[in-house]
């Protein structure tokens, strides 16, 4: 067995950190090689090649890029601390950056786009504005940095361009001139190459801070290839985390579902950095992944023999961390294989009401989430906070399915109270089900859609919806249904306590889709969960 | 009277020969009674549990030698070695690098040559060892390499070569096996089908060195 002393001496648990911005984790300690060898009486030999795999992972979600762009949002600053921590935990572990796109668009386009995002991250981390200049001056499809990138950078550096509309107006011109002045450049008021270089550099420095310093030699190929082979690459859409069922895909391919499809595909758009064992070094010529500007032939050579089938929608919806079979590229699959981070993070919004049906905005809450399938990252997590301007309690990275014990009170009921008091008394409490439907129904992508394609609601799903709507969990389903039918104003002969299709439709309507509370006051307080994923942009 | 010995895991011809009092494994291996064995096993160091080795009779050699004189008798025994080539994925061989091979009775300091080869003299009794190189401590089982036309033999080579990433506790992960075979095939210009057929086996033996 191969034991790596550097890894086994690490005290404490493995780090696993998952947020709305991204993920960071140590990889679990690996079962290591045991060499079975033959002695030699002539010139026989054995060969030992230490297995190649990462020791840690840092990933960013799409939210950290401008839409359809490789320009890096200043929000990334909120996630770089995790990378710094991983570097401290794994000194000398070389990095390599992998960009991923969603399955919309053709393979070559996606490979380039995802590669550009990987390049942007690499350029940022190594503080090399040249890589950004390359991206800026070679727009690709929808990825055109333009003046807007300069405006965002200026704004982050507090030069107040006024807005981010990509127009060189008075305010922007003045901001540029101020920047140029502060940086010893001629005050042209327009961002030429020298200005851009200085602007990108200052922007990068602002985002990275002082401690996080990386050089090309900290990456896997040590910068030995000019185009970054081995250091950063794009995987296009070859390795999605999530694939819809064939039926859901067909629905989402409809032209007027574009926004929904983009939203549903968000988990696939990510940039991932692997940290490898400390003395790993790669000869770019031998590294399987093609350069960013090269085509997909090199990628396809490394596909699983059933690679095309893997990345195509199948009968059921698939997520990598469940089925482990959504990656077409076998080489990438072998690297990412043990990663706890290549997963779809669900964001759940639970809208809070009081018993008079008033939405509670800014309401203090505490939620304890118990996933059905506990993993390292999410065993019994407790989230606390205040509901947002919609009255929603927003919970990040909720494993689905889960139950959530939600406790909440009116806003401002105690201005001095902090949300993390263990002894805090909340006015309301309810166990809420997250994930109400059987997986087959693929309802997650039907947000906002009405009942033209609902699937069949099971009794269990109905029970959970009724529970979330506040119908007493201890009651029988028949009684709850009857009460619900009463509340929504069905005629007495329709109040059967049975889950007929009309009742199911109304139940789905009130629970899944309605943003406003039902018309009639209920007997008990009713929080109203909406459907994951519903991530803010 | 002919004696037969059934191979157990970890045994190789030299260790078996030694067990029956033969210093030179060739005496056993090349014996006529083992011609059948030699047809199916090309390498006396790579045998499979269940293989049957015939043990020839020990002949006593008589030599006349006058007394009151010193005579030198040289015992011809075979030198047994352990050779391991050290390679890195996607990089050069691990050449000119120090390594330590810790056997049960000795700990030998070695240096790999330019091609990454380390060679150490061992005895027919050595079975368990530990290899320490480039910051790794690797458990080694000498004589436990099965023939390449057996699934355990294929898996052992894929593991040694760093292709098999599945558990080492005895359970075999079929997806990981497929991944290992396909990756090996891809690296060696073979048809990538995940099946370890004759061509893949031949390549595996060649690349591994045994």
What does this structure look like?
The complex is a heterodimer of chains A (537) and B (210). Chain A is globular, with a radius of gyration of 26 Å. By secondary structure, chain A is of the alpha+beta class. The longest helix of chain A has 19 residues, at 107-125. In chain A, α14 packs across α15 (477-487). Chain A has helices at residues 5-8, 77-89, 107-125, 129-137, 146-156, 170-182, 193-208, 246-252, 258-264, 297-301, 307-311, 320-323, 330-336, 459-468, 477-487, 501-513; strands at 2-3, 16-18, 22-26, 34-37, 46-48, 54-61, 95-100, 232-234, 242-243, 270-276, 318-319, 348-351, 364-371, 381-386, 392-395, 402-408, 428-434, 528-529. Chain A has 16 helices and 18 strands. In chain A, β2 (16-18) and β3 form a beta hairpin. Mean pLDDT of chain A is 81; it is low at 1-11, 419-423, 436-454, 514-526 and 530-537. The mean pLDDT of chain B is 92. In chain B, 39% of the residues are buried. The longest helix of chain B is centred in the C-terminal third of the chain and has 14 residues, at 174-187. In chain B, the strands form three sheets. Chain B has a four-stranded antiparallel beta sheet with strand order 5-4-7-8, with no helix packed on it. In chain B, strands 1-2 form a two-stranded antiparallel ribbon. In chain B, β7 and β8 (136-142) form a beta hairpin. Helix content of chain B is 25%, strand content 21%.
Order of helices and strands of chain B: EHHHEEEEEEEHHH
The number of helical elements of chain B comes to 6
Any low-confidence stretches of chain B, pLDDT <50, length ≥5?
none
Task: Give the biggest sheet of chain B.
Answer: 4 strands, antiparallel
């Amino acid at each position: 067995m191969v034991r790596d002393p550097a890894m086994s001496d690490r005290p404490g648990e493995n780090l696993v950190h998952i947020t709305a911005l991204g993920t960071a984790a140590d990889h679990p300690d690996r079962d290591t090689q045991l060499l079975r060898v033959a002695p030699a009486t002539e010139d026989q030999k054995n060969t030992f090649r230490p297995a190649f795999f990462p020791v840690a992972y840092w990933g960013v979600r799409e939210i950290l890029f401008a839409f359809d762009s490789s320009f890096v949002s200043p929000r990334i600053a909120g996630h770089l601390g995790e990378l710094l921590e991983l570097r401290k935990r794994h000194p000398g572990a070389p990095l390599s950056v992998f960009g991923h796109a969603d399955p919309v668009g053709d393979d070559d386009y996606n490979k380039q786009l995802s590669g550009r995002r990987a390049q942007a991250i690499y350029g940022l981390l190594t503080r090399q504005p040249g890589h950004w200049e390359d991206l800026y001056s070679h727009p690709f499809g929808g990825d055109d940095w333009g003046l807007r990138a300069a405006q965002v950078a200026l704004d982050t550096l507090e030069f107040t361009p006024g807005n981010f509309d990509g127009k060189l107006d008075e305010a922007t011109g003045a901001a540029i001139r101020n920047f140029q002045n502060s940086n010893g450049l001629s005050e042209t008021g327009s961002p030429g190459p020298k200005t851009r270089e200085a602007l990108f550099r200052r922007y990068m420095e602002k985002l990275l801070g002082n401690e996080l310093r990386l050089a090309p030699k900290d990456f896997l190929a040590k910068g030995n290839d000019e185009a970054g082979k081995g250091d950063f690459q794009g995987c296009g859409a070859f390795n999605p985390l999530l694939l819809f069922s064939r039926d859901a895909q067909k629905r989402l391919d409809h032209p007027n579902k574009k926004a929904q499809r983009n939203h549903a595909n968000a988990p696939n758009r990510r940039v991932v950095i692997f940290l490898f064992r400390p003395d790993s070094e790669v000869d770019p010529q031998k590294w399987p992944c093609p350069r960013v500007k090269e085509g997909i032939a090199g990628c396809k050579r490394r596909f699983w023999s059933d690679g095309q089938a893997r990345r195509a929608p199948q009968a059921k919806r698939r997520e990598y961390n469940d089925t482990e079979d959504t990656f077409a590229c076998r080489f990438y699959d072998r690297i990412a294989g043990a990663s706890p981070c290549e997963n779809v993070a669900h964001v759940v919004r639970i809208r809070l009401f009081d018993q008079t049906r008033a939405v509670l905005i800014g309401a203090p809450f505490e939620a304890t989430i118990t996933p059905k399938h506990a993993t390292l990252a999410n065993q019994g997590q407790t989230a606390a906070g205040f509901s947002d301007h919609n009255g929603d309690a927003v919970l990040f990275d909720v494993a689905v399915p889960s139950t959530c014990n939600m406790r909440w009170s009116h806003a401002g009921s105690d201005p001095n109270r902090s949300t993390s008091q263990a002894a805090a008394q909340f006015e309301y409490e309810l166990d809420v089900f997250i994930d109400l439907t059987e997986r087959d129904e693929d309802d997650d992508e039907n947000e906002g859609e009405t009942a033209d394609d609902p699937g069949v609601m099971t009794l269990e799903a109905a029970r959970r919806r009724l529970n979330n709507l506040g119908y007493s969990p201890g009651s029988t389903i028949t009684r709850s249904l009857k009460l619900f039918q009463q509340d929504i104003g069905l005629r007495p002969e329709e109040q059967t306590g049975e889950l007929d299709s009309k009742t199911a439709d109304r139940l789905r309507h009130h629970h899944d889709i309605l943003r406003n509370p039902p018309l009639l006051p209920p007997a008990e307080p009713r929080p109203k969960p909406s459907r994951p994923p519903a991530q803010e942009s | 009277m002919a004696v037969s010995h059934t191979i157990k895991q970890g045994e190789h011809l030299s260790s078996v020969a030694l067990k029956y009092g033969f210093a030179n494994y060739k005496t056993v291996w090349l014996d006529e009674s083992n011609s059948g064995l030699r047809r199916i096993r090309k390498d006396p160091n790579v045998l499979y549990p269940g293989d049957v080795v015939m043990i020839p009779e020990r002949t006593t050699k008589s030599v006349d030698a006058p007394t009151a004189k010193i005579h030198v008798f040289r015992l011809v025994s075979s030198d047994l070695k352990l050779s391991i080539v050290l390679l890195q994925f996607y990089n050069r061989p691990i050449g000119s690098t120090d390594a330590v091979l810790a056997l049960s009775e000795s700990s030998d300091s070695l240096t790999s040559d330019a091609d990454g080869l380390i060679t150490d003299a061992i005895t027919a009794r050595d079975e368990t060892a530990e290899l320490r190189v480039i910051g790794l401590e690797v458990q080694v089982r000498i004589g436990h390499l099965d023939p390449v036309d057996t699934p355990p033999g294929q898996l052992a080579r894929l593991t040694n070569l760093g292709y098999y990433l599945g558990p080492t506790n005895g359970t075999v992960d079929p997806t990981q096996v497929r991944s290992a075979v396909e990756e090996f095939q891809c690296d060696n210009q073979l048809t990538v089908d995940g099946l370890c057929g004759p061509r893949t086996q031949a390549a595996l033996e060649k690349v591994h060195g045994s």
